[in-house]
Design goal:
Helix content: 55-70%
Strand order of the largest sheet: 1-2-3-4
Number of domains: 2
Number of strands: 4
């Protein structure tokens, strides 16, 4: 990992005992005002971010007013809860990055004047780790719980296996909490559609990764490492099965609403992608959003093969998604070449065609 500059308030002469303590965020002072964007005023930049993430993106699963979006961003960036907030430093300008482990929200704010650069909800810790691994944000050792496992070294000689095991580690970190929160939400009849599709997607990705490892030749140490992570995730699988058994109708209704919201989001997003996607980060995040829907649909198809979740007709959703993907295909090369996007040797199901498309970009 590339070395990074220390945040400007970091204390010097830290003892080994002090450095071993869990990281606690220390920055607050958000002005509640967005900074000026590229050729746009502060007000216009705020409107652009709100439209992308809260209106078209529907990242909170519901309509959110501009006032609420601004207030939520300010509250998030001023939060000082060490059990929830991971605070990092953006390398290029030393801006503060805050990620909320509970809500999945990310905010970036200028350290000097407290102006907000962006606020959104990728809702997947993989987004955070991708930034950390690329050397753009902080270093993982400062956030308790994100250190790379020694076990991952067993897979270092094969890039694809290394990627798959890394994703399995991340799912083992996320899935148990996601499943627990989803069960609690259904008990309180407050389930969030976006959170539910993300849970399905992660279960689908977990299924795919295990399938990939089962068809590959692994050493005994590698197999043991995979098995230990599977044990951490199995409780999440059982939690979802419990929802199916005891809240079947409610679960099916929520999944239908979920798919409707997320596929509508894809339809709106890719039909306007030429103007909405303005940099490489937004392109990568958009592809990950599409991949999330793909894994959720994959999981539902497998469940239906096992005579589960049969109350959902997936054919109309599939047809709409395929039509939306025509727009994705039409704009992909233009955006990929414009922002110098390259495939990074991920492993994904064959149906996720943009991974194959990216390999042909010269």
């Amino acid at each position: 990992m590339s070395p990074i500059r220390k945040p400007d308030m970091a204390q010097e002469n830290t003892t080994p005992e002090e450095s071993a303590q869990p990281f606690a965020p220390y920055w607050s002072g958000c002005s509640g005002v967005f900074n000026e964007g590229n050729a746009s005023s502060s007000v216009e930049n705020e409107r652009i971010h709100h439209n992308k993430h809260a209106v078209i993106g529907r990242e909170w699963g519901r309509d959110m007013s501009l006032t609420e979006y601004r207030a939520r961003a300010t509250e998030h960036l001023n939060s000082l809860e060490p059990e929830k907030i991971v605070e990092l430093c953006q390398v290029d300008d030393l801006a503060v990055v805050k990620y909320n482990l509970d809500t999945g929200e990310v905010g970036i704010v200028r350290r000097d004047d407290g102006l907000i650069k962006t606020f959104f909800r990728p809702n997947d810790v993989h987004y955070l780790l991708r930034k950390v691994d690329s050397g753009l944000w902080g270093e993982p050792a400062i956030a308790d719980g994100f250190e790379s496992s020694v076990q991952s070294s067993d897979f270092a000689d094969d890039p694809q296996n290394f990627y798959l095991f890394g994703r399995l580690e991340e799912l083992a970190l996320e899935l148990p909490n996601q499943a627990h929160e989803m069960v609690a939400a259904f008990a309180e009849t407050t389930s969030n559609a976006h959170d539910l599709v993300l849970l399905l997607a992660h279960l689908g990705e977990f299924r795919f990764i295990i399938f990939e490892f089962q068809r590959r030749i692994l050493t005994e140490a590698q197999s043991d490492s995979v098995f230990s992570l599977r044990k951490k995730i199995i409780g999440a699988v059982a939690s979802f099965e419990g929802l199916e058994r005891y809240r079947s109708e409610q679960l099916i209704d929520s999944v239908k609403r979920n798919l409707e919201n997320e596929i509508k989001k894809q339809e709106d997003w890719w039909s306007q992608a030429a103007t909405l996607i303005t940099n490489l980060d937004e392109l990568e995040n958009s592809l990950i959003e599409r991949e999330t829907i793909g894994y959720a649909m994959l999981e539902l198809r497998v469940l239906q093969l096992h005579r589960r979740m049969l109350g959902i007709d997936l054919i109309p959703f599939d047809c709409r998604l395929q039509k939306s993907d025509i727009n994705l295909r039409g704009i992909f090369y233009q955006l990929a070449t414009c922002f110098n996007y390259r495939e990074d040797h991920r492993v994904s199901p064959e149906a996720f065609f943009w991974r194959r498309m990216a390999e042909n970009i010269s």
